[in-house]
Amino acid sequence: MPRPRLNERQLDVLRRICHGPQVTSADSDLAVTVYALRHRKLVTTTWANGRWTAAATHAGLQYLAENDTTNPRPTAPGTASPQAPDPTENDATRLITTIRQTGGTLRITDPSAAERARLRRLLHTARAEHLVPDGHHLQYTGRDKGDMIITLKPGPPPARDTPQTAPIAVPADLLTIRLHPAARDAPLPVCPNCRSRARRILHALCLAAQQQGHTASAPAPTSSASLVITAGEHAFPLSFAEGSHEVPDTEGVKYSWQRVTARTTRPSHQLQLSLEHSYAHPGRRYRWGDRQRWRLEDKLPDILREVAHRAHTEHERQLARQRAEDETRQRWLAAMEQARTDFIETHRLKALRAQVHAWQEATAIRDYCQALEDHQSGTTTPETVEQWITWARAYAESIDPLPRNPVLPPDPEVTPQDLRPYLHGWSPYEPKRR
């Protein structure tokens, strides 16, 4: 099936991407056209440093070479290369040699996604095949964006153990400190004997959270939590609780011979703090408390570390959702522009076919009139026949488009419903599929 022809604007933008200045997301007036070209597989967009950059594909270069007479045919260096083969030991050895020749540091300026993947495979091959010089290790930065910097460093690779977090100091009493407001006003569902300790723990947790750039505040009146730590844009309620144990209820005994069967619950003075359980973080620890080998005070760094982890996870999910929404919107805008182009193309084809049909009919009528006159040659043509021929030729003249010098018809008014048959499942009103 032949590829649909580009309109003039799309051809101009493709020409600029191939031969002109770089087209990026800063060129907002070209964005919709770039998305339409990408929808046709004529260009690609790569993200780096928070913006996209358009680049022509092999199909785009070929289309421009075949359909644009204002630019020369692109040369081989401008064409897209096929997917790189798997790296070999020789490739990895050459990479190590290049790094050593550059003084131990190799910088690749803003490589493409395919080039980054190729370099990562080379580094993996170098490590797996023990090609790294003895007493050295490889490190690199720029896995997904920016410049990729590969360094050959002396010494063994750094250990990947979890860093030890400094303990959080909890004051010994409430007489020498001024409690944090969130700790002072926090609701504490614990026994009176444990409230002082619980407030001191919350006070230390509030100060440590603020030192790490978080905020600590009192929960909403309707919440059952004791404290809320906000990391970035995400809030994490923390709830205090106290354990309990059952003991015989001696007060229920009325007679000396009566067997004590009644039992009652007493506070165990074992405190615990818990984050709100969420299925968004499966398998993550959310409760910390007093145990035989440690106290709750020893686990405060773990609580803040879990808060930071969840905040980072939520932030990454939010970014991923935003990227997915942006990508969906870009595809929808490209589909909308392509649908508008297809609708106008259909309108023009209808006009062209109507003109061709009228011209063919007018030509056939004229031929018929001539044949009718030839048939009457040598005899007197009846007046009624002449009238019929005169009327038929006048009608042919009225429907023939050639005397009117037909031109490109004006584009029709386009409504969202007009575009629906050309959107292949997209909604004409919003970036959603049916």
UniProtKB/TrEMBL annotation:
Residues 67-82 have a biased composition (Polar residues). This is Uncharacterized protein. Residues 403-413 have a biased composition (Pro residues). The lineage of its organism: Bacteria, Bacillati, Actinomycetota, Actinomycetes, Kitasatosporales. It comes from Streptomyces pini. It comes from the Bacteria. Residues 67-90, 402-434 are annotated as: Disordered.
